[in-house]
Amino acid sequence: MKRVFCKICNVETKYSRRTFAKYHLLREHNLGSKGYYDLFKDDKKEGECRICNKPTFFRNIEEGYNRFCSNACSLLDVDVSNKKIESAQKKREREKEKYNGKIFLQTRECIDKIKAAKEKKYGNKNYCNVDKVKKTKKEKYGNPNYCNVDKIKKTVFDRYGGYEYTYRKTVEACKKKYGTDNYFKTELFRDLMEATGQWVPLKDLSKYEVYKRKVRAETKKWAKQLYNNWDGNDYYNGQKLVTYAEWKVLYPGINVSNNKLQPSIDHKISVSHGFVNGISHKKIGNIENLCICSRDTNVRKNYKTDKQYNKIIKRR
User: What is this structure's pTM?
Assistant: First the structure.
């Protein structure tokens, strides 16, 4: 048994790491392991998250504090992210060698193991604990679908005055560290997703698929403004459209997938036309090229431009 040396007494005690705090620190010095560690730590900032400066979890007197307050913050650290990417790549390579180009989770062996474990533990190979979750919520809160979203909102407003504060701080931190307002837009994040097999590498995508993604990203920038300026009608035929909220009131119990008048964003000059004719993705995704029409109209228009589709409508 490895005995712990007490820096306060300057002697080796008869206690191990597990019993040192309980039988020595508390009795002899009226200190816990955290208080004892803080007396002798070299770095006074230890115990603060490297990213957001929030307090971090204390592990024990040998390991000290965690470097980050959460996994989210650890991913924002370049060194940690690089190590995770490198580790994920090595693991993926080993699994591909072992399972003929697949990762373990994609193999029949893994699927069979999961089903066998569920069969043994719950008596059902397709078991999912949704019912158990609902039962617990029913017993604890009186509602099987309980969610403490109101409590979360209240806490955020009491502490920060609203979500705007946390959003602004996040954006500021990302811009300072990565030069962009969102970590998920960085090449670092893409490398991590590609390394873990969650995203398809850009080099494996067709030029058209890459173009479509860029148009989609540009379109998202204008979506809110587009809907704010919308008059409620189909851009092409002037028909009054039925939003999701209106559908729920008019046809309760009927799935919204039956709503052919569901509003959707359309590109007047279609994405495929823009790609074939070498038009910039920024122009295709810009609000000047966007309109709102019904889902049914959008499907019918397909790859045509607004001028081509309007000609077809006039012929009818």
Answer: 0.49
